[in-house]
Amino acid sequence: MEFGNISTRLSVGTANNVLIGGFIVTGTQPKKVVIRAIGPSLIAFGVPGLLANPTLELHDSTGAVISSNDNWVDSANKQAIIDSRLAPTSNLESAILMTLNPGAYTAIVSGVNATIGVALVEVYDLDSTVDSKLANISTRGFVQTGDDVMIGGLIVLGTQPANTIIRAIGPSLPLAGTLADPTLELHDGNGTIIASNDNWKDTQESAIQATGVAPPMMPSPQLSRRSLPDHTPPSFAAPTTRRGSPWWRRISSVIEGCRSSGENRNGRC
Q1: Residue 96: which of 74, 113, 114 has the closest Cα?
Q2: Distance CA 55, CA 199 (A)
Q3: Cβ–Cβ under 8 Å, residues 107 and 121
Q4: Cα–chain-centroid distance for residue 38?
Q5: What confidence category does residue 269 fall into, taking pLDDT thresholds of 50, 70 and 90?
Q6: Half-sphere exposure (Cβ direction) of 201: Cα atoms closer than 13 Å
Q7: Which CATH code, of 1.10.10.10, 2.60.260.20, 2.60.120.380, 3.90.180.10, is assigned to 2-255?
Q8: Phi and psi (nearest 5°) for 148?
Q9: Prediction pTM value
Q10: Are 118 and 39 in contact (CB under 8 A)?
Q11: Lowest mean pLDDT among 80-84, 173-177, 181-185, 199-203
Q12: Contacts for 78 with CB less than 8 Å, ≥ 6 apart
């Protein structure tokens, strides 16, 4: 089992409120991926308040920028992006096609000229034959209400169920303005809620603690060791909402076969 796609939709702000998505490549061989920052084309799905012109940076585990892109059509490997069949619909959207060594990476989505709006950050696995896989995604951003909650998506490949941990972290973050009491829902590819959680100790406490990646504070939800079957389409979504006032910072993470929480931008498995 492996993840074929991991993504997060969020309202992108400026400065510390940009969309920060971390992911981990595990294994022994390099992994070819496409990373995309999508904004204008979300209009086809009825998403309001879109980020008109997203820009994308990719950082390695040291924090160094190893690639960046504003408009994907300006990429030196534009044809390779087209050949991957994952070229963004809008020329103003961003894409990076790279082969990455195993390790931790961070994709940062912001608006050109400090513009704001809803955007999607995505990572696609282009080669499932090598001895490496996408094992974790964690996204930090501001959770609001209505259409501006945080929505994380994932696609599970293969024929066997996958044990995963999905977490919504708020109060334990060493940051100002954290989300005091996040809640978490897991939806299947049809939009049906298949699991939900508010406080992680209320359900599956022993199983969650046994994984070694239990949230450090109780008012954080987690769905532990969910067996996610292959779907057609094999996709899941995990919206995170808030209790109390809006505009709070939190992290969402999905972990498979990983013993690290992935809570910081440079975390490793």
Answers
A1: 74
A2: 35
A3: yes
A4: 13
A5: very low
A6: 5
A7: 2.60.120.380
A8: -105, 20
A9: 0.73
A10: yes
A11: 173-177
A12: 72
- Which of 222, 250, 175, 241 shows the shortest CA–CA distance to 20? 250
Q: Which residue has the tokens 């940009």?
A: 18
Sorted by sequence, the CB contacts under 8 Å of residue 217 that are 6+ apart come out as: 171, 172
What would the two tokens of residue 192 be? Answer: 């049906």
Task: Please give the Cα distance from 47 to 136 (Å, whole number).
Answer: 26
Q: Which residues contact 169 (CB under 8 A, 6 or more apart)?
A: 182, 215, 220, 250, 251, 252, 253, 261, 263
Distance CA(40)–CA(33), nearest Å, equals 22
Report the C-alpha gap between 187 and 240 in whole angstroms: 11
For residue 251, the model assigns a pLDDT of 43
Spatial contact of 158 and 1, defined as CB atoms under 8 Å apart: yes
d(CA 168, CA 149): 12
Q: What 3 state SS string does the chain have?
A: CEEEEEEEEEEECCHHHCEEEEEEEEECCCEEEEEEEECHHHHHHCCCCECCCEEEEEECCCCCEEEEECCHHHCCCHHHHHHCCCCCCCCCCEEEEEEECCEEEEEEEEEHHHCCEEEEEEEEECCCCCCEEEEEEEEEEEECCHHHCEEEEEEEECCCCEEEEEEEECCCCCCCCECCCEEEEEECCCCCEEEEECCHHHCCHHHHHHHCCCCCCCCCCEEEEEEECCCCCCEEEEEEEECCCCCEEEEEEEECCCCCCCCCCCCCC
pLDDT over 70 (residue 225): no
